[in-house]
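Hi support team,

I submitted a single chain yesterday and got back a structure, but I'm not sure I'm reading the token output correctly. Could someone confirm the output below corresponds to the sequence I sent? I've pasted both exactly as they appear in my results page.

Thanks,
R.
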Amino acid sequence: MTTDQPFLALTIGNTRTSISTIKGSEIESTTSFDSSDSSAIVEGAIKAWKAMESDNPQIIIGATNETASDTISAALADQTSRQIWQIGEDVPAAIGQHLDPETITGIDRLLNATAAWALCNQACVIIDAGTCVTVDFVDGEGTFHGGAIAPGAKMQLTSMHEGTSALPEVAFKAPLHEAFGKNTAQAMLQGVFHGIQGMVRQLCEQYAMRYGAYPRIIATGGDAETLFKEDDLIEQIIPDLQMQGIAISVQFALTEEDA
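Hi R., thanks for writing in. Yes, this is the structure output for that exact sequence:
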């Protein structure tokens, strides 16, 4: 594979899986699926793979959901007769790391950090609001320092419903623009929505104090728009940040290989 050859990329998360065709650093098309529907994902990936204007293009996966990834990878390898490359095993995420020894960090966090650093070229905080909410820090030298992991909005609401006898099942959305939740569902939404916003703000301030300068703050993930579109702390929301991280990491690995 060379730097100008297009390839098919999949990001397999706990909730959603995205499939993109990538050429160089450009993401040309993306479709999304529920990660529990492995048959639809494989069908969609094969369709996209066959439609690519390239001879037997490579398939590359960045996965945080290992169970789904194993099933999907095996099916794609069988139907394409290709070895499926994995970010982290076959292609490293193109970001330096300063973590405790033996720490296993989710590939999604590293790919988000890779793309954020490439975009900012300065210290930054990356908030990924999905199944979980992660708030991670990259310093001004492009080194990933880790951060914080908390339950995502839907997980919090589900936990309250399942862990009590009276609290209802509530779908996540932004609460009403009122100071108080006037009913149980609104009270739950107020707690989750503002709880996540407050956690993010506190962590960003903590990172800035430790670093000695205020970093740029970027958000991504399925709930980012709902949580942060009116939050003046967040400077940019980038839905496909993780996919951008795959494109950058592949380009970096191929360039290093050619050097």
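A quick pointer for reading it: The radius of gyration is 19 Å. Let us know if anything else looks off.

Best,
Support desk
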